[in-house]
Amino acid sequence: MRLLICKNYTELSLKAAQIVAGQVTMNPQSVLGLATGSTPVGMYSELVKMYEQGRVDFSEIRTFNLDEYYPISADNPQSYHYFMEENLFSKINIKKENTHILDGKCTDTAKECDKFEKLIAANGGIDLQILGIGQNGHIGFNEPAENLNLLTHLTSLTQSTVKANSRFFSDVSKVPTLALTMGIGTILKARKIIILANGESKKEAVKSLLTDSISTGLPASILKVHSDVTLICDNEACPNF
Ligand code: PGA
Predict the structure, then answer these.
(1) I need a surface site. Which of 11, 83, 94, 101 has the fewest CB within 10 A?
(2) What is the mean pLDDT of the chain?
């Protein structure tokens, strides 16, 4: 795992956007794995700027999002469908039919997850996966547990994630407690991965990621078995060794 330390969130967002733009420029038909949450907001806004300046063309890319709450409808402002529209899709020239987000309103979750896995494979797999890291070390909604799921699945959120995400909701009781998420194996199959961490609240998770051994108690640690992962963190998230 490579470590790239940026002086602040602005620099982290720019670096991450440059990596994504570089991928899309080298292969205009790239398959991107996308993340939501507050971490990638700055990166998306840099990508939108690059698009507006005519420096990158998204017309042929295909995207798969990591996760979505369940149940939730796409027009709910807290959904990740809504987040992607607001932060990226409505602002660039991506084709709607090339974007894929798990359906938070599906009735058969197993079928939806299986369809998603097959669609990723049919598109040739993910070239570049973007990840955030939870305060508890989760990636996607793969929460710390004794056993981790390899494939896309329905999962329960831990109390710590519900609490962390309650900042986006009017009340903690409104945070969904279930989600659909890519599995650890789905993520590891990506050819290249970048994982972003900013702010003091991520410092402990980053420290464990860099210093502890691989364990299902820190799902992000499993990324250490992958041959092309770059952890990009800002000064605040970077532990002092
Ligand atoms: P955040 O979430 O970007 O909102 O901090 C990251 C994550 O939970 O993966």
Answers:
(1) 11
(2) 97
